[in-house]
Structures are given as structure tokens and as C-alpha cells.
């Protein structure tokens, strides 16, 4: 989905869920963005003790050892690349080393990224909120401790503000 629709927020809710925390031995969040640099991403997954080498093979070998036999959840947030080769090198190291039940959760604005990762059957497409949903959220945030009639007094202004947010939860949040 487009920027501001809530992909990262939803991924954070999953990542921080108590059941998820106990289910996975390792939980790792990596902000990816553009460009997709396999070495940088692998080192971010490894965390506090990354290899000093910048050779992809060395880094991927260390990554494999780091997650070997462990059930992990790795969130790759804001992926843009559609380069299958770059993804495959990282994917192979992750899938071959992690324990059964490991998961990789990816957020992206581009459907093509999910295609490239062969993840379309598990994809959740996120869309803008309806005007009514936005109005409900806005009223809750703006008038949460007031009587209902007070929010009715400002209904026209509230609706104007909500229309400017174009269904994007992030725009509502930033108000």
C-alpha cells in the first residue's frame, strides 16, 4: 500500500505482540529502504557482533551461524528492490539456517516486491481508510474526553480535516 497507510504500524503490532515474543527465539527489525544492500541488511540482522569483513560470502556465513537452528522473525521494513538476485542470496542464508517455523515479514509499497519474493499468496494489501473510519478516529483523538454533543458541534470542521487526510492513518496521527 501507499505511504502512510499503516504497513509499518501493523508490522510493529505483530512484532511486539506478547505471543510473538514468546514464539520466536530471535526477533529482528531491519529498516531497509532503498538501495537494498545485502551486506548492510545481513549485518543489521546479526546486530552487536557483525563481521568486520565486507565480503558478501563472509557476512552471509556469519549470518547463517547467528540464526542456525533458531526460530526467528525478521521484519524487513520498507523494501523497494525488485532485484531477485540480491534477495535470493539473503533468502538462502536465512531459510537454510533458521529453524522450522521461522518467518520473514516484509513491508513494501510495491506489489512487484512481493512478486519478486514469491510472497503474493501471503500478502496483505492495505488501502486507505474510509472517510467514516477516518472521522471516527479523528473524533476519538480530538474529543476523547468530551461529551458526544461537543464533537457534533465541530462536525463540519472535523469532516473538512478528515478529507484533507485522504484516508491515511499517518496523516491523522500527525495532526
TrEMBL record:
InterPro entries with a match to the protein in the record: Apaf_helical (IPR042197), NB-ARC (IPR002182), P-loop_NTPase (IPR027417)
Instruction: Report the record's Gene Ontology biological process terms.
Output: defense response
What does the record give under GO molecular function?
ADP binding
Per UniProt, the keywords (alphabetical) are: Plant defense
Q: Name the residues that span the membrane.
A: none
**Highest taxon of the source?**
Eukaryota
Q: Which residues form the NB-ARC domain?
A: 1-144
User: Would you tell me the protein name for this molecule?
Assistant: NBS-LRR-like protein
Native organism taxonomy? Eukaryota, Viridiplantae, Streptophyta, Embryophyta, Tracheophyta
Amino acid at each position: 500500500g501507499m505511504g502512510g497507510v499503516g504497513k509499518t504500524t501493523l508490522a510493529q503490532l505483530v512484532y511486539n505482540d506478547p505471543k510473538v515474543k514468546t514464539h520466536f527465539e530471535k526477533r529482528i527489525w531491519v529498516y531497509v529502504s532503498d538501495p537494498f544492500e545485502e551486506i548492510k541488511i545481513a549485518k543489521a540482522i546479526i546486530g552487536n557482533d557483525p563481521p568486520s569483513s565486507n565480503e558478501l560470502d563472509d557476512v552471509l556465513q556469519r549470518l547463517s551461524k547467528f540464526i542456525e537452528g533458531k526460530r526467528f522473525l525478521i521484519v524487513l521494513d520498507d523494501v523497494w528492490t525488485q532485484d531477485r538476485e540480491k534477495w535470493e542470496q539473503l533468502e538462502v542464508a536465512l531459510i537454510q539456517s533458521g529453524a522450522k517455523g521461522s518467518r520473514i515479514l516484509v513491508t513494501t509499497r510495491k506489489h512487484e516486491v512481493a512478486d519478486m519474493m514469491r510472497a503474493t499468496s501471503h500478502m496483505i494489501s492495505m488501502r486507505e481508510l474510509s472517510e467514516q473510519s477516518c472521522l471516527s478516529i479523528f473524533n476519538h483523538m480530538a474529543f476523547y474526553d468530551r461529551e458526544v454533543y461537543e464533537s457534533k458541534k465541530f462536525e463540519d470542521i472535523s469532516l473538512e480535516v478528515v478529507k484533507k487526510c485522504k484516508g491515511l492513518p499517518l496523516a491523522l496521527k500527525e495532526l
